[in-house]
Amino acid sequence: MSLSFWKPGTVGPGSTLDRVTENDSAVISAPPQDNRERLPIFKHRQKLLYCVENHGVTIVVGQTGCGKTTQLPQFLYQAGWADNGHVIACTQPRRVAATSVAARVAAEVGTTLGEEVGYTIRFEDVSSKDATRILYLTDGMLFRELLVDPLLTRYSVIMLDEVHERSVHTDLLLGILKKIRRKRPELRLIVSSATMDANYFLDYFSSGNGPNEAVIVSLEGRMYPVQIAYSDEPVPNFVEKAAQVAWNTHLQGGTGDILIFLPGRDDIEMCLEELSERIPSLPASAPRMELVPLYAGLSTDEQLRAFSAPEKGKRKVVVSTNIAEASVTIEGIRYVIDCGLVKIRVYNPSTMISSLVVVPASKASVAQRAGRAGRTSNGVCYRLFTKDTFDSLPASTPPEISRTDLTSIILQLKALGIDDLMKFEWISSPPAETIVKAYDTLRTSGLITDHNTLTPIGSKIAECPLEYNIAKMLFASKDFSCGEEILTIAAMVSIQDVFIIPGGAPGALAELERRKFTAEEGDHLTLLNAYNAFIRYGQSLSWCKAHALSFRAMSRAVSIRSQLKKYMHRFELPIKSCEGDAKRLRQCLVSGYWRHSAKWQPDGTYLSVHGNKIMHVHPTSVLFTRKPKSGWILFHDVEETKQLQIRILTEIEPEW
């Protein structure tokens, strides 16, 4: 059924958005939050507690916003599941969800965040070993905890939230927790999702554990309708179009905030810039616009900005990656603008290269996005793609385990004593070629023996909260006497976008500022120079602004470095300086990045040593306009747009 509801002179006829199509899959919502007892989950409180008491696994299906993530742990807490020093855990695929939900639940419980309610994410622990009873944490952090306590004995209930996202750690936890349940039958599992095949998970947990092992609870709730507007023709520039639709929506008046979904940080910043340039032309009668970015690279405080109410007389416009798609609820959103794309990491086992690729989102994902508009009232979702495009989308995103490098994962599984991957109860088996390549890499790196058992250094590296190659550099720094510098580089490559380089004239000035830190050897040493200067000049916000550096990113690097330093001490790795010897430092980099090496080609591109792929230097690299003297480089990672672009490069000698 098609409805025409655009006001003349706004998006109306003649534009690429002039039609609204009702779509049942996207009519998603929940009641307002001012009275929590109106949430759908409250109707099912007794049923849920009964199921948790009488079944090992409770599979909860309910739309985002029904209250399952915030309220269910509180029900369990009130029912005594956290007595006698036990903890109720709730895992999230993303750190923004773990932090924002923990803050909200702490407020509802009436406690200080970090006391009865806390969170743990990589490089950040806001919880108390003695006081915390409800703990929100990323699935990766719970997986790492298995290395210390294989039976997770401090937990009475573990809730795996948003399992439909099928992150690699969620898949691994499902298999390991199924095994733990056989040894700890008193442990209760809750598997929850907004959209998932509940019967698939029911069969998985029942297999080998008995027919009464698992039960399904469905949380239905009152729905607010979300009208869907499709584009009549393909949109050539989705960033520009998203900004235009947001602007037109804002000028139409009405109440409610706007949420824009874009694939990555670059797209988000371009969209924010486009909207910022329009703001001076806002009519005096129109409300002001409050522009808020939301993506994984932001600090916790900056991410939480997206969840706070806008100032009086302002409309909030949140421009986000898919992290706002599920797990988290941004109150007040009434309009969603969806470009229909997502950036995911894809691993190619033949080239042994992982790259970030922009691909069409799945039907499940775009339905989730549309649902953001129907949380508190009727909403509208503008899809910047055609109905035919929607019909051709895959039903769901492939599980991360089917498209990721398993080298670090297999190392950690071995540290847990899981040696026979064929006997592991996978919810979805990873590709055989990916497993073979991972074993080859671990053997070549000296982390496992020819008999596939862990070496002493492999056991230690499995405990580090870093990718195996970065951790290997920390251990190699002992041989090259450059622990001080490698520690800094490891912290700096763990964050995103240290340098702020906007477009236009300010961009030229920012580029001049960056050159003050530039090392001719490449980006790793340039990042080292920037960090050392930041410390030397007192970790100052004003100094960062003057030198086009992100104070937020630099401060996070300081925090990460201090935590990695504890691992250096624990493993008795000397923190010595190479005293400016760039050769030793770059040789140490090769110990971790040996798979990521490439040779310069006469046309200015690079040919990867592993896989013979043609690659281009990312424009943000200091080697973007330079040819390395040796003709050889190593790189940190790859991003795939219209071409493969390598980021964070350093010149090396081929014999290394």
Automatic annotation (TrEMBL):
Naturally occurring in which organism (per UniProt): Ephemerocybe angulata
Catalyzed reactions: ATP + H2O = ADP + phosphate + H(+)
PROSITE patterns: DEAH_ATP_HELICASE, HELICASE_ATP_BIND_1, HELICASE_CTER
PANTHER family: ATP-DEPENDENT RNA HELICASE (PTHR18934), ATP-DEPENDENT RNA HELICASE DHX35-RELATED (PTHR18934:SF136)
InterPro entries, per database record: DEAD-box_helicase_OB_fold, DEAD/DEAH_box_helicase_dom, DNA/RNA_helicase_DEAH_CS, Helicase-assoc_dom, Helicase_ATP-bd, Helicase_C-like, P-loop_NTPase
Hydrolase as UniProt keyword: yes
SUPFAM superfamilies the record matches: P-loop containing nucleoside triphosphate hydrolases (SSF52540)
One Pfam family matching this protein: Helicase_C
Family the entry assigns: Belongs to the DEAD box helicase family. DEAH subfamily.
Ranges where the Helicase ATP-binding domain occurs: 49-214
Stated name of the protein: RNA helicase
Key words, A-Z: ATP-binding, Helicase, Hydrolase, Nucleotide-binding
Molecular function terms from GO: ATP binding; hydrolase activity; RNA binding; RNA helicase activity
EC number assigned by the record: 3.6.4.13
Helicase C-terminal domain span: 234-417
A GO cellular-component term linked to this record: catalytic step 2 spliceosome
